[in-house]
Structure formats: C-alpha cells, structure tokens
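Morning run. Coffee first, then this:
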Amino acid sequence: MAASPSCWPPPPRGFSLALCLLLVLLCCLAAPAAGELVRRVAGDDGPFFEPFNVTYDHRAVRIGGERRMLVSAGLHYPRATPEMWPSLIAKCKEGGADVIETYVFWNGHEPAKGQYYFEGRFDLVKFAKLVAAEVGFPVWLRDIPGIEFRTDNEPFKAEMQTFVTKIVDIMKEEKLYSWQGGPIILQQVRKPFSRLSDCIENEYGNIQSQYGQAGKRYMQWAAQMALGLDAGVPWVMCRQTDAPEQIVGDLKPHSTLAMPSTVMGLNQILTISQQYGLRIGMDEYADWGGPLPHRPAQDSAFAVARFYQRGGSLQNYYMYFGGTNFERTAGGPLQITSYDYDAPIDEYGILRQPKWGHLKDLHAAIKLCEPALTAVDDSPQYVKLGSMQEAHIYSTAKVHANGSISANAQICSAFLANIDEHKYVSVWIFGKSYNLPPWSVSILPDCENVAFNTAMVGTQTSVFTIESGSPSYSGRHNPLVLSLGDGSRYLSSTWWTFKEPIGTWGDSFAAQGILEHLNVTKDISDYLWYTTSVNISNDNVAFWRSKGVLPSITIDKIRDVARVFVNGKLAGSKVGKWVSLNQQVQLVEGLNELTLLSEIVGLQNYGAFLEKDGAGFRGRVKLTGLSDGDVDLTNSLWTYQVGLKGEFSMIYSPEKQGCSEWSGMQKDDIQSPFTWYKTTFDAPEGTDPVAIGLGSMGKGQAWVNGHLIGRYWSLVAPKSGCTSSCNYAGAYSESKCQSNCGMPTQSWYHIPREWLQESDNLLVLFEETGGDPSLISLEVHYTKTICSRISENYYPPLSAWSHVSKGRASVNAVAPELHLQCDDGHVISKITFASYGTPSGGCQNFSVGKCHASSTLDLVTEACVGKDKCAISVTNDVFGDPCPRVVKDLAVEAECSPPSANKESRDEM
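And here it is:
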C-alpha cells in the first residue's frame, strides 16, 4: 500500500561524506609536562588566551616567539557527538597532546550549493573553541559543467575559494585565531583521509604529475588564494618540494623543518630517509570482508621517537581518536562504518591501553627534551654507535661523546637508537654503557639518565569487555528483552516487518541506455534500480532445456555491489571495485522483468581525477547464452528508480511510524532479503558506551530513534593472515599484525548514549540479504580487566623529573611505580592477582613464581580497591624483600566496575 503524501520527506540532502577538500586548523592546548604553551584568560566566548603570534622558522613553529616541539592529536568532530567532545579533548590533553587536528568537512557543511549547515555534530564553531579543523568535496560539485577537481580548473577554484573564504570568515567573526586570543595556530586546505597533517593541498605532490603543468599552476594558485585570505596564522603544505616561499613546507630543498608528519595511523609504514628524516608509506583502511590491522604500541612509539630524534618538530597522530562514520559517511570503496583506526582512544572514547599510556610517557619524555631540541639551530650532533645503532645529541655546545658530561653545564638531550630488529645491543656513550632493546629508541633528557625506551612498556594493559547491560526499567513499560536459558541476552522478542518493493515503487523515469549511478542519485541514497523487459521465445527455453544450461546476464564492470533480479526474485550478486559480473538467470517464456540494483558502499576518497571515478555500471550489459546469439541490452529502454521506498518514506523516523503498514514478524520473515525490521528497546543502565551486535544480520543500514548509525555488513574476513602474536620490531605493514581472521570485519556498532532515551527506543533495520533480528543484542562497552607488570629496575616515573635546570635532573633515587586506571565513572572493585617477586605469565594468565611476597595482595588491595586509579611503588620498602639478590617484578591484575550507585539500582530491580 502506498504511503500517504504527508508521509513523504523533503529531498534528502547531505547523506554522504563523499570526497573532501580540507581546511586544517590547529588548536593549541596546554601541555602540563612543559607548562602552558600560551597564557589562558577567562571568558566562555573568547578570547581564550592572551593574543599571541604564530610564526615558524627552519626548525620549528614559534608560538609567542618561542620554538615549540608539538604533538598533535587527530580528532574529527563529526565522528563523535558534541556530548563526547569535552571528554575526548581532555583525554588528548592528558595523553600529552599540545594540538588538536581535525577536518572541516565541506560536504557536511555545504550539502547543497550555497546551503550551509553548522549544527549538531557539524557545529564547527562550538568545536573550534578548543580545536580547529579540515574540509570535504560534496557530491553536487561533480554536476558543475566543465569541472575537474584539484587542477587548474576555473569552476573548481571558484567553488573552493567560496567555501574556504566562508570558513575563514566564520573563524575571524568568532575570534578563534591566535592573534585574536583564539586557539587556531595553523591551517591548511587539503584533501580527505590523507596521511600527513596540516598542509595546503596535502600530499598534492604525490599526484601533481598526473595533472601536468595544470597541476603545478593549481598548487601555486591554492597557496596564493590561502595567503590572500589574511587569516593571520601560517598556512602549511606537506610533501611538496616546490611550495611557495611564504608557505610552510617540510620537503623544501635544504630545509631542516620536518613537520608536520603522521606516524600513528594503523597502516602507515615508516622508513628512514637520509634527506628528510622519514617517509610515510601508503595507508590502508579496514574494508568489509578484510581483517583488522593493528600497530603495536612499541612500534608506534619507535616511529614517533625517530621523527623527533632526526629533527622533527610537529607530529600528528592520524588518528588519536578515530570514532565512527555515522550515517553513510564511510569512505570507499567498501570501507567499514567504524573509524576506530586502532587509535590510542578507541571508537567509543575509551583509552586503548597500553598504547595510550605508552605514548603519553613518550610525549612527556620528549617535552623534557624540549629545551635542548629547540636550542639547536641546525642539525643535531650525530654519533655512530654501531652498525645499526646511532645517537643524535641536541646540546648548546659540542659534546665529547666518549666521556662523561656530568661536569658540563650546557643544555643537553640525546636519543639513542637501535634499528636492529633482532638483537639487544649495549652501546658506550657519555662514559656509560646503555642497553638498547631491538628496534628501539632510548630518550635521555639530560644526556645521562634514560627516561624512556620505546620498546619497554611500563603502562597497564586494558581488556575491553562487551557485556549485556541491565535495561533501564520504567514504571509504565515492560522491556522487550528476551533472556534465554544459557544466559544470553537478546535485544527484543517482538519485531515488526515491512517488505521493500523490488524495482520501481514511486517517482521513476525512463531513459535509453545505462546512466551513471551518481549522476542519477546525486548521492541521496546508496541504491539505484535499473529495470527493463526481455522477451523470451519458446525456442530459447527449449534450447536451454536440451543443453542443460542457463542464460547469463553479464556486465563489463560494476562498483561496489550489483544485484540481479528476474521477475522480482534475486538471482545473484557481485561485490568489487570495477569488476565484471556474470550471473546465470532463469527466464520464462514471454516477457521477463529484469532488474539490476546498483549499490555504492562509500565513495572513492583518494587519488587524482576523483570526479571521474563514479559508481554503478560501465561498459556493456548483455544477455548471453541464447540460441541465436547474445542480446546487447545496454541501449535498451531502462526505467530508473532512486533509493528505497522505506528510505524515502522515512519509516525509520519515530514521527513517521504511521506512514507504513508494519506487520508482526513471522518465521518466514527471518532470513528474508529486502525486508525492513523494527522493534523498541530500553537503554542499558549507566553511562558506559553502548554497542549493538548485528552479527546475525547480513547487509544493510540501521537507525536508532531516527539517527542512522551507519551501514552494517557481516562480510567475513579470510581465515588466513592472522597470527596469535605480533612482533613489534621491524618495518610495519598493514598485513603484519592482523586480527579478526575468519570473522566478520565488523559486528558491533556504536550507538551514542546521547541518541538514546530511557525506554521505548526505536530500532529500524533495512536488511538486503537476509538475517535473524531475534539474535541482535545490545551491550555496554567498557574496560573490565586491567593488568600491569613493572620491574624494580624499570625507569623512575616521568613525574619524578623536576623541571630541568641546566639540562640536569636527579631521578635515580626514585623507585619505579605501577599505575592502574579504570574508565571514567568506574572504580577498581577487586584485585584478582598480585605478586611481588618472580611472577610468570601475562595479563589474564599470571601465576605466582618461586619468589613471592605474601603481603602483596593485601597491600595492593588497600592501595587500589574503591579508587578509579592508583599508583604503587615497586620497591622492597613497600613489600619487603622475598628473595635477596634477585630482580623482582610487581604484577597486578584487577577488575573495574561501574560505581556503586549503579550497582545498587540494579540490586533493587
């Protein structure tokens, strides 16, 4: 039954993130380890700081005239909710970041030409009070006659200048630039999903040659356009050897400025370049049907430390928090909804340990070296320590590396590197011997004492838990939660369904030939239906029967998903990027309705000539295997239908539930393709992040209370390619440390707490291939188990280093510390293991060794239980000496739980 006219929505806009042109604005934060970068002043509406100038020289960015070593954390505001922003920014700051880097998404802010949107997750001004951002290509840009992206093309340059000017003007009006007392210190115009941060047309040098002289002219124009906006802060350009003189660039000839660069991303490969200090390799994103890459904390720290060791001054983590590609904003082709990125802060806003803590310690160690790093005007003093070992010394005077420097008064910091992947090596420098683990960097803030080594992790390991959350019962509503005998919790026992019609259902049109997908849909939907008729003779049916064969539909090239229907029934599907399709079909005598469905799963987001990539079908569409030869259907009359009936009826919206006829789910509705499902549910108690498990479903989209949480797809990764352990040492590649083999790439999807109400939450799914909604579960995501193991010979805590005076600090007398920390709002509820002595095993597998201080459990319990975090000195002074002349470790495993108020409310139910 057709929906009434009042139920139809206005034309959808801004559904997809599409391709991006980015304006990067960097926000200055206080860095506790080194003092505040700039002086803060009171005022919620600005100024936020005393006005200060930002400049740069060949060595570093200058803030208020002073060189600074900066750590930047990538955090994209639309990939989180506004309610998450304060906590995320605070965690970046606590982790040692000085700067927040984010995108300004052009397609999100200008979904239709001349129509601007700055609300909700796209409230740039609200976010930019602390951070600043980047921008993205909207799909409507493709429709401008004669346009070509990122080259000397007048239509493109006109639109780009209009939008960039709009953003700069808003930032000025809100007084967000540093010279106005605001947080923005650097900015760029750049493309999306790039690997290096903070540049005008970032990495354009990688593709400029494909545009010839027009590319060079465009790069020069982009620089002059940016400078002409008079923003009052530096513009930067990376991976560009011919950047204009007024633009910061890291690859200009003879420049010692190695900034800014990204070495954090999941799949970024760092190699050492004698000319520039480092080079970043290509970046791969998690794709549907692929495993999940992982980069060990030790290797991430090694790459960052090497960057600063070899002259770097500003480094950006892409990503520090990845977040979620809500709605249809995931890139493509075929990139998953999660943008977790194995980042130090996970998709849900929870600290990923030990990566976050290990990098926090690294940042603190680098800040201790800042006086020496900024004092050296040229290259550091280089010392060869072995065939694969080297030192870089930053000092105000030349250092005699073979002798003690304890009597010298100069400011001095040193980095000792062992790039051997396999061997521990002892090196002699400064009159002392230093032991270097494989593939590691030791940092000596005073050229004497080691404060940090990248391969030696001294922070806790956190084990994420996804558990069924108790529903938040209301007095007027009985929750639809089905508890099974095995203890499993499923979301709901009551579901309703609505069948999506195949092919045409509403406003359609006919055209001769195969039209390009995006030219028709304008990206207001992932789906485009192509329908035509094929007349089959009795002779052909007899021919197929006699030969025992079936005819086939062939398409030269498809992208990303193509489905073939004959007379309303699904015949088969094909997935891939511009791959061929050959699908057998069963046709009957007479007129047959042939329907092709083209689906996009994210738009192309990197490379040259993006406007020409397109989507849908290319080449010829044929019916093969007929008795008298093939039939070319390419130029037939096709009827086109954009999108889904349920999608355009907005049956996912709480306000539109009366606009479609839902029916109770029957057994036959399970595993039924092209079906809409809905149910209601109550939110789990507490404030922990919420995840919905859609592993029992096939492929589709999911809405909660009208919010599209994203695409889902239970495509399974290959069984091979993952290992049980991962060696951090050696050059990183995306295939080195993979996980999730033989499992769906993504099964859990983030539902922001802000999108939930206490009860009667509406969940709507559109399922394409068939699934079982009765097996969907709703869970809370938090850190339940935390573990740490510290040796009594480990380095003193970095907090023990006083503010360095004349390059010296005395820390040898301070004992190392074991630190434990639960998620926000959780406390340590139980110590499940504690041993000071010679414990064996690892996290979740500790056991007591031959040497053990019997008082350990009681002492640790007293120090930690009931607290959100605790610190314990690892020394005989605390535990006694259970085995003299033996090096002892303290190993602890603990459980974190929600606060007691939540426990009590659950007990009352």
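The longest helix spans residues 154-173. Good start to the day.
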